[in-house]
Amino acid sequence: MADLRKSGLAVGAAVLSAALLSGCLQSEEGGGGGGAPEDTAEGDGQIQILGSFPAPESDGFEAALADFEAQSGIEVTYVPSTDFTTEIRTRVQGGNPPDIALFPQPGLVNELGESGDLLPLNDLVDVGSIEQTLIPGFLDAVTAENGDVYAAPMRMAVKSITWYPTPAFEEAGYTAPTTWSEMVDLTAQMREDGNTPWCIGAEAGADTGWVLTDWVEEMVLRTAGPEVYDQWTSHEIPFNDPQIIAAAQRFADDIAFTEGNVAGGRQAILTTPFDVSPNGMFDEPPTCYLHRQGSFVTSFFPDEVQSDLAANVGTFVFPPIEDGYDGTPILGSGDMAAAFVNDSDVVELMEFMSSAEFGGPWAEAGGWLSPHATFDNSLYADDSTREIAALAQEGDVFRFDGSDLMPAEVGAGTFWDETVAWVGGEKDLEAAFTAIEESWPE
Fold first, then answer.
1. What angle do CA 255, 258, 260 make, to 5 degrees?
2. Is the dihedral of CA 115, 116, 122, 125 positive or negative?
3. Under DSSP, is residue 80 helix (H, G, I), strand (E, B) or coil?
4. Which of 1, 408, 421, 435 allows an S-S link to 427, with CB 3.0 to 4.6 Å?
5. Same domain assignment for residues 184 and 132
6. C-alpha to C-alpha distance for 60 and 67, rounded to whole angstroms
7. Quick check: is 1 in a domain?
8. Per-residue pLDDT tens for 24-71?
9. Global confidence as pTM
10. What is the C-alpha separation between 110 and 92, in angstroms, rounded?
């Protein structure tokens, strides 16, 4: 990729133009800023993108843009940031935003969309055509009340995955469940066989707790459904709503707190490092047989397991609950592309990155999943990745990690801390979630 950046003068002119267009649209149409298609300026042949993923992770992204650059003649520079949230805010406030930014969390997208700094995606590209191929629900997290959409997903991470050690699992005669009741029965069968079903480890230093909040989010999605999940993460209902309490309690009763269900017992959940916790599946004999974690967890598996994932580990989607949401929800995260400048180059690149055709070279390099249900899975580097992609594509609805949607002082603060206090036995569930509710900023 080109190692050039737009000059400060060019960026300043584009930002000024975008700001003027934003003001016009806000006054004429009410709602988010941005320019209509007829207001798109002629590009200067150069685009700067700011993102949060560094090299070598960014190598696949740059490879995915190589053909675009060659065919369009547009030079694209990717700038990785070690502190994306701070840098993007500083650059926006200083009037020097990038042309496009790749946001790892939808909350910041919405913040800059509401302030009028980001251009609505629907003013640049055909959002309807994007939605036709996306996994359902992906755009909900970045859609304003007036219908403006502020970003397009260009990378997905899937969290609703259950892993198991294929050789030992099959030798024991176990079968991957497709429903919650089947998984509860499988857990009981493993205990009866003298085996420990689950590995759960939540210790992560200053970040201890996020593993547990993921579990709670999974349970809310499955018991109460995506509509209640949205009300919960946006604080339209209180954090300690009875539906949320019931979801967390089901995690405790069916999985975490039942004696014999978790390797090391309930207390070991808080002392076992999250990156070490799945390795019990690969002991001989296994010290656990099931592990719920995101698609990234394979990087923590033993080297000999990683060398042939398809032979060593299997997956099934974290199953739906029969008396809960009627469907299979997928919890995850992703990088979202959003634009600060409305020119023909930016529009062309946003159309490309938001399409189901984007990402082939990145898929072949590994470490990337398309958020589009119609992406060609044969392009992924291995069978395990293809299987995970298919699990997500077959889901009925996608929802972003709830703690990333909540205010930081809750999502990465009291939600983590109070859930740890509950699992550790320092507080009962009602008291812990009430404390989280009381911490929500006004």
1. 100
2. negative
3. strand
4. 421
5. no
6. 13
7. no
8. 333 333 333 344 455 899 999 999 999 999 988 899 999 999 999 999
9. 0.86
10. 14
